[in-house]
């Protein structure tokens, strides 16, 4: 017999069955529990707050880390016919923001960045509103970004500490035991219900290949793109290299565009939409791209470097094969890449000299923003020190920064170890997240044995079948609704 939740699932979303973990998470939310849910990429995390939103009486606040992710989620809801959805972000003019604040409680789904939540006007408005649920989307960012990049994530703890606050749902695709602890602490989760699905994606086949030089690396990337099917994403560490790769590959006839944080927001959104529509087959990007990009048929993820952590690597390769078909995750590296990754991860990190300059400015009654204007500190330096120094002494702050920097370096060492030793890549990744691998698929990884031609051929073989099945489901759902 169909339950009430299954009926809502079909009537509102057009699905006949929940994916693993979804129903249990939704039930915990409806029971007004704090919830931490870890679902692999492509397993429908957004449904876990969208469905409760329709079953609960008041607004749902979704804290989202990236403007592109926020806009993508807003657009999805609007395509479903939901008009009571809005995003408050830095692109609003002051008059637009004030007008929106006046009628904010008329919206069902309200998307906010952590920085927007911390603005006094916004906090004051939220305190006057009835709220059914607070959602921290991509909650791993609280740990991975909050301590050393966007401290407003950590300030969410203060905002969520008031008595009688609504339940909190934290959603992520990857979380190590340490990150789970960070999320629970920083969001003030009260005895949370924790739902964890296996993070293994058997259809993603891992490969790590050492090359002699950066020139060889590009030639191998170009050869792989020409030999094996896309769509795909190439991840690199610098904006300059993203542009260079895209330019070189486009001259070879590949439909590709670059994407990074140095581009105008409207240009980034345009490229993302082209990729989703199939007008661009490849995107060459820094890690600014991919979060919240709902494209099911990504066949390849290529890295030209060691990512800054296993969690980041898992997030990025997890954007492949959301349709369940086989996909390749290939990483090309040289012996020097480890040092370069450490430099990139720690270059914009405050040290003792930055702490001293910052404190002197404050003692002289000067605004920290002037440090950025004068080129003495970066915006990231100021953000980090503005959070830590009011809470800790200068010596304690320096110790915290040393510890965070050391952790970053250790995470890169771990990524390199996993990708370059002789053990199964898949098994090692799963173990980092405190899980066990039950079964290795054929063509598991380059350590266990990988014939890429078989992976790609299998993907091509089943692509038409997938398209046919998709249309059959849509037609069947349409007839059932009419009945």
Automatic annotation (TrEMBL):
UniProtKB keywords: ATP-binding, Helicase, Hydrolase, Nucleotide-binding
Superkingdom assignment: Bacteria
SUPFAM superfamilies: P-loop containing nucleoside triphosphate hydrolases
Matching Gene3D superfamilies: P-loop containing nucleotide triphosphate hydrolases
InterPro entries with a match to the protein in the record: DEAD/DEAH_box_helicase_dom, DNA_helicase_ATP-dep_RecQ, Helicase_ATP-bd, Helicase_C-like, P-loop_NTPase
Organism (species): Paenisporosarcina quisquiliarum
Gene Ontology cellular component annotations, sorted alphabetically: bacterial nucleoid; cytoplasm; replisome
Organism phylogeny: Bacteria, Bacillati, Bacillota, Bacilli, Bacillales
GO BP term, pick one: DNA repair
Protein name, entry field: ATP-dependent DNA helicase
PROSITE patterns, alphabetized: HELICASE_ATP_BIND_1, HELICASE_CTER
Location of the Helicase ATP-binding domain: 26-193
GO terms of molecular function: 3'-5' DNA helicase activity; ATP binding; four-way junction helicase activity; hydrolase activity; nucleic acid binding
Segments forming domain Helicase C-terminal: 213-380
């Amino acid at each position: 017999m169909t339950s009430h939740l299954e009926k809502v699932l079909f009537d509102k979303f057009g699905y006949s069955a929940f994916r693993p973990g979804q129903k249990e998470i939704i039930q915990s939310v409806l029971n007004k529990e704090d919830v931490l849910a870890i679902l692999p990429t492509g397993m429908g995390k957004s449904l876990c707050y969208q469905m409760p939103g329709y079953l609960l009486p008041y607004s749902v606040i979704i804290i989202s880390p990236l403007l592109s992710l926020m806009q993508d989620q807003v657009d999805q809801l609007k395509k479903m016919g939901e008009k009571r959805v809005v995003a408050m972000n830095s692109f609003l003019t002051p008059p637009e923001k004030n007008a929106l604040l006046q009628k904010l409680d008329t919206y069902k789904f309200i998307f906010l960045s952590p920085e927007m939540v911390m603005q006094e006007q916004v906090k004051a408005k939220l305190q006057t509103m009835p709220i059914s649920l607070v959602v921290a989307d991509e909650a791993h960012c609280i740990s991975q970004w909050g301590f050393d990049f966007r401290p407003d994530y950590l300030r969410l703890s203060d905002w969520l500490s008031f008595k009688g606050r609504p339940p909190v749902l934290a959603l992520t695709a990857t979380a190590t035991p340490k990150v789970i602890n960070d999320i629970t602490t920083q969001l003030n989760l009260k005895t949370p219900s924790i739902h964890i699905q296996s993070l293994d994606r058997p259809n993603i086949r891992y490969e790590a290949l050492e090359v002699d030089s950066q020139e060889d690396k590009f030639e191998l990337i170009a050869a792989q793109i020409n030999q094996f099917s896309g769509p795909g994403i190439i991840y690199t560490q610098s904006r300059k290299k993203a542009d260079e790769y895209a330019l070189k590959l486009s001259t070879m006839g590949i439909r590709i565009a670059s994407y990074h944080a140095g581009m105008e927001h409207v240009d980034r959104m345009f490229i993302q939409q082209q990729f989703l529509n199939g007008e661009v087959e490849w995107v060459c990007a820094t890690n600014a791209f991919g979060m919240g990009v709902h494209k099911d048929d990504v066949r390849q993820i290529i890295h030209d470097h060691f990512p800054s952590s296993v969690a980041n690597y898992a997030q990025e390769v997890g954007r492949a094969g959301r349709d369940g078909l086989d996909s390749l995750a290939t990483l090309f590296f040289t012996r020097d890449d480890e040092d370069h990754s450490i430099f990139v991860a720690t270059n914009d990190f405050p040290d003792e000299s930055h702490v001293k300059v910052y404190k002197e400015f404050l003692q002289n009654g000067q605004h920290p923003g002037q440090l950025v204007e004068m080129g003495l500190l970066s915006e990231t330096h100021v953000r980090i020190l503005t959070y830590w120094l009011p809470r800790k002494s200068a010596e304690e702050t320096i110790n915290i920064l040393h510890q965070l920097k050391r952790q970053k370096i250790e995470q890169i060492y771990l990524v390199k170890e996993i990708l370059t030793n002789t053990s199964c890549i898949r098994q090692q990744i799963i173990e980092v997240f405190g899980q066990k691998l039950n079964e290795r698929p054929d063509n598991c990884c380059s350590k266990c044995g990988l014939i890429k031609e078989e992976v790609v051929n299998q993907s091509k073989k089943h692509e038409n079948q997938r398209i046919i099945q998709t249309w059959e489901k849509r037609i069947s759902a349409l007839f059932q609704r009419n009945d």
